[in-house]
Amino acid sequence: MSATTNQRAVVLVSGGLDSTTVLAHAQHEGFACYALSVDYGQRHRAELNAARKLARSAGVREHRIASVNLHEFGGSALTADEIAVPESPGTGIPVTYVPARNTVLLSLALAYAETVRATHIFIGANAVDYSGYPDCRPEYLAAFERMANLATKAAVEGQTMHIHAPLIDKTKAEIIRSGVQLGVDYAQTVSCYQADEQGRACGVCDACRIRKQGFSSAEIPDPTHYRQ
Amino acid sequence: MSATTNQRAVVLVSGGLDSTTVLAHAQHEGFACYALSVDYGQRHRAELNAARKLARSAGVREHRIASVNLHEFGGSALTADEIAVPESPGTGIPVTYVPARNTVLLSLALAYAETVRATHIFIGANAVDYSGYPDCRPEYLAAFERMANLATKAAVEGQTMHIHAPLIDKTKAEIIRSGVQLGVDYAQTVSCYQADEQGRACGVCDACRIRKQGFSSAEIPDPTHYRQ
To answer: What is the model's pLDDT at position A182?
Structure first.
């Protein structure tokens, strides 16, 4: 795919490996990128610091941080204090699933897109590693796109909104290889669910395990800063 | 419609006339109601204070206030400081339109619904008085419902989510009459876009004009506290 430089895109950037790769893809395709990070009370706030640095070094047009207190609702190991982050693989939908997270993230991206007149939204949803997350499925993203095209003043005025999830069917190794080709510095990204304030990873949570395995499968040295 | 008392509903309650009426409808239909107010940086914060009082006096199971800084994005007279609230009717989509507002509100309601295991969401969307708002149209709400039924762990596990907009095709006079029948005390509700801290209305903004006209058409004395 190629895009004229006139086309604006909102890119959801968490500071993690996937969304940083997505930002590199969107910029490589020629979109004028408006990065959006969402502080939803997640434990891994080190990701937000990483997001700031990564957006700046990628040279985005603008970077905004939206805050929403999903923490208030609880219900996930990533936002609730009383649920432990698991350190061994489970089955079914992981307890790290955040209720309606991608719907909230995409809704905020839609609001931001309308104010900057962007007609593209990029999200790092992935149906391979996160097969247990309902809101990482292609059919979910298609339904969000249909809804978005009825939701806004821009839509009524004839602007079509496109939701892009370029990593949706890629393995972690494929994601990492594509990012390395595009010059992504993965040492700057933070994936760990329980990173410390310096962004150093625990090495044992689900996110760390998937990431480690990705570098190993891609046969690329793992640049992650671990605290152990 | 009737419901068993086992059925839980999240009701979006702003403190305004419409959503307060919707709450009365949902309770009358027998739903166990979980009220959700959203502080999105709107000017009319007096509405949130009204929402607290109204939710308490309605006897809801729980009332939560979610905060999201849509203000950060600007783009509406209701959230941006530099756009004046209009005092005469315009044509087309009003400048008080907030980008993707109902999508953001419904997304937060969806997240809340999943954590309290509610399978119904009530919203005071109205296609008559707010004909210019794209996200008050029935086709938009239907698309949101379809998306919601792909978005969550609850949906994957077979729970169907229902979006209710009982006021969608009602005039303001019809809404007021139905609320009065259900015992709503409209003196407690705040609709004004620029209410003061005591919740007193300006009497001249779009919201005030529509509300005044509603009481007049319904031939019910207007209990609104005006500051002039």
So the answer is: 96
Q: Decide if B67 touches A, using CB distance below 8 A.
A: yes
CA distances (Å), origin A171, targets A89, A131, A168: 17, 11, 9
Instruction: Determine the distance in angstroms separating the CA of B79 from the nearest CA of chain A, rounded to an integer.
Output: 12
List of residues 6+ apart from B81 with CB closer than 8 A: none
Instruction: Please count the CA atoms within 13 angstroms of the CA of A79 that sit on its side-chain side.
Output: 19
Residues in B 149-178 with any Cβ partner in A closer than 8 A: 150-153, 155-156
With a cut of 50, which residues of chain A have pLDDT below it?
A: 1
Is some CB atom of chain B closer than 8 A to the CB atom of A128?
no
CB B134 within 8 A of CB B94: no
Tell me whether 0.95 is exceeded by the ipTM.
no
Closest in B67, B70, B134 to A152, CB measured: B134
Contact B150 A156 (CB under 8 A): no
Name the one residue in this structure whose structure tokens are 């399978």.
Answer: B119
Flag whether B71 is in a domain: yes
B105 within domain boundaries: yes
Q: Does B180 touch chain A (CB under 8 A)?
A: no
pLDDT above 90 covers a percentage of chain B that reads 61
Which residue intervals of chain A are DSSP H helices? 17-28, 46-58, 101-116, 138-151, 153-156, 172-181, 206-218
Q: Is residue A121 classed as helix, strand or coil in its secondary structure? A: strand
A45 backbone dihedrals φ, ψ, rounded to 5°: -70, -20
Torsion sign across C-alpha atoms A70, A76, A82, A87: negative
Helix, strand or coil for residue B34?
strand
The CATH number linked to A124 is 3.40.50.620
Among A101-105, B145-149, B204-208, the minimum mean pLDDT is found in B204-208
Domain assignment present for residue A145? The answer is yes
Indicate whether A2 belongs to any domain. no
User: What is the number of domains present in chain A?
Assistant: 1
pTM for the complete prediction? 0.89
Q: Which structural domain, as residue segments, surrounds residue B44?
A: 8-218
Residue-wise pLDDT tens digits, A189-220 = 998 888 888 889 999 988 899 999 999 999 99
Helix (H, G, I), strand (E, B) or coil at A209: helix
Q: Is A3 on the interface with B (CB under 8 A)?
A: no
**Which carries the bigger pLDDT value, residue B133 or residue B26?**
B26
User: What is the rounded CA–CA span in Å between residue A84 and residue B75?
Assistant: 40
